[in-house]
Fold this protein.
Amino acid sequence: MSKKYIATPTRTKELLNKYGFAFKKSLGQNFLIDVNVLENIIHQAGITKETGAIEIGPGMGALTEQLAIHADKVVAFEIDQRLLPILEETLADYDNVEIIHHDILKANVEEVIRTQFEEGQDIHVVANLPYYITTPILMKLVRDQLPVTSLTVMIQKEVADRMAAVPNTKSYGSLSIAVQYYTEASVVLNVPKQVFMPQPNVDSSVLKLVMRKEPPVQVDNVDFFFELIQASFAQRRKTLRNNLNRFLQDKFAKQQIETFLENAAIDGGRRGETLTMEEFSSLANVIHKELPKN
């Protein structure tokens, strides 16, 4: 049965030859050629016959096909015009798939959800994302607070580890906190290079992000909270005190910054990577109250 699927080396090569398709490095095109991996991704995403699915970068339709089999409806965003006729052929048997020729970063995804899915439907983003643009795509989707339950995405292993990292680990940084402010993040699957055509140079993982109904911390100003976090990791090997002095030097004297740290009950000799999100939120709120008003 699986030989009929798009996600096999034979079928993928057939399509490449038939359409004279050449991979574009600039679009980060690596197509999946293993049905078992795809079914595992769909299982991890929690896709059922009642759920809707949004895919980004369907390629030749390997994941799209499996989503069409398991989900109620699939909407896929494809930026590469050369793939549209291929998708038309490979997905011809599925009447529950809508391909949208659009850049996901410029698309009004909320409007697409409103027009393409049933009101109140359980919707999941499932995608094999181009590695070069993973972070902008995921940050756009989570910051837009879309009405989706989760995002389950194949991405570069190193980036997945950073997004799901906890304090006091090498991978933990500003990206970890930015992602986990909006979602609960976990790495659910590690994937070998051999299941892609062409094989990427890096290892891959499947990251699952479950959207939070409320952020895990209360902050007075979200923009300042993230600015403070960025600054705290600006030079990882330096202490929090040093990074803050640099970040706030135009606004506060060093003694005032010391007072902020004391009021937030944080030792300035620690490094940013040791602070929890709760500690960062306390510090951000203490400082924000004293910021000069423009």
